[in-house]
Amino acid sequence: MEKLLIFNQKGGVGKSTSVVNIAGCLSQKKKKVLVIDIDAQCTATSYLRTIEGDCENTLFDYIIEEAAKEDVIYNISFKKWSHRAHGYIPQETNISLVPSDKRFNAEVFRKEWNDYDFFKRFFTPDLEEQFDYCIFDCPGYISSLTESALRVCDYIIVPAFADMDSLVGYSDLIDTKNRIRTETDNTGLELLGVVFTSVQGSVNRQIIAYCKDQMGVETIFKSTIRRKTIALDARIVGKPISYYKPKDTLSLDYIDLTNEFLDKIKAAKKGKK
Ligand SMILES: Nc1ncnc2c1ncn2[C@@H]1O[C@H](COP(=O)(O)OP(=O)(O)OP(=O)(O)O)[C@@H](O)[C@H]1O
Ligand SMILES: [Mg+2]
């Protein structure tokens, strides 16, 4: 299993949207994906709500209430219109979700919970076997859970808007990655690069060119995600864009991004050999 953290120490830059849409692309490629939502806002959780509605158990129940691990992992399926059945039928996916919980917002949890080895214990060999990829949806700051996830993750992908703040956010992340590599036993943590989300217009494109110039082309994904209202429609419907409108250009953007980071992972693994 490869573990990806979709992270930027900045809010509202398309992290959760990218998590769900990348999970959708990997699922369409028949890869088993575990999405773990560690943000108390529960965006990925409410996006990928189960067909029955709310998830009964969450990551919080596993950590605090001692729920069984298998009881906090939900298979995700969607409703699909069938002309033959003349009604909605379930559409199975290869996505599973560990839901987040608003209770992670509690002050005590944010400040005093410092079990940074939590995810090390969570990823037992049988869980690693069960899935090809795990994708974490994080808040826009380093919480205890983010810190715990950083210690087990292999790769970080950084969604950013094409504005001048992205340069600032990225240098914070380089510091975080270096700290994890030197202060913990996760010495192989890699930053795969910045992906610009919500790209529209020539000013955005100029900023991307400027960032490539300042940060190096290898730091920025060639694939960009365009700004489209269909991103919001897909969220309302509760499906990744590759399930909602597979032929839409936004879906193609996420497919390109997924192929590009899979190639980067392949290259990174070759380099380590
Ligand atoms: N490609 C896109 N086109 C249009 N709107 C988008 C696109 N990507 C994301 N958005 C919208 O931008 C807003 C922020 O996106 P998202 O929730 O994914 O960001 P986030 O980084 O996870 O935010 P937070 O830090 O609050 O968790 C949402 O309303 C989302 O629907
Ligand atoms: Mg989010």
Helices and strands in order, then pairings?
Elements (H helix, E strand, L loop, with lengths): L1 E5 L8 H14 L4 E5 L5 H5 L11 H5 L10 E9 L4 E12 L8 H6 L5 H5 L2 H6 L2 E5 L6 H7 L4 E6 L4 H19 L6 E7 L4 H15 L14 H8 L3 H4 L4 H24 L1
Parallel strand pairs: 1-5, 1-6, 2-4, 2-5, 6-7
Antiparallel strand pairs: 3-4
Bound molecules: adenosine-5'-triphosphate and magnesium ion.
Magnesium ion binds next to helix 1.
Query: Which word captures the global form?
Result: globular
Percent in helix: 40-55%
Count of individual beta strands: 7
* Mean of all residue-level pLDDT scores: 91
- The first-level CATH class is given as Alpha Beta
CATH architecture, please?
3-Layer(aba) Sandwich
CATH fold name, please? Rossmann fold
Q: For the terminal residues, how far apart are their CA atoms?
A: 17 Å
Unreliably modeled segments: none
- Give the names of the bound compounds: adenosine-5'-triphosphate, magnesium ion
Q: Describe the main β-sheet briefly.
A: 7 strands, mixed
Fraction of residues in β-strands: 15-25%
Query: What is the H-and-E element order?
Result: EHEHHEEHHHEHEHEHHHH
Q: Widest sheet: strand order?
A: 3-4-2-5-1-6-7
Counting H and I runs of at least 4 residues, what is the number of helices?
Answer: 12
Secondary-structure class:
alpha/beta
Question: By CATH's scheme, which homologous superfamily applies?
Answer: P-loop containing nucleotide triphosphate hydrolases
- Radius of gyration over alpha carbons? 18 Å
**Please, how many domains?**
1
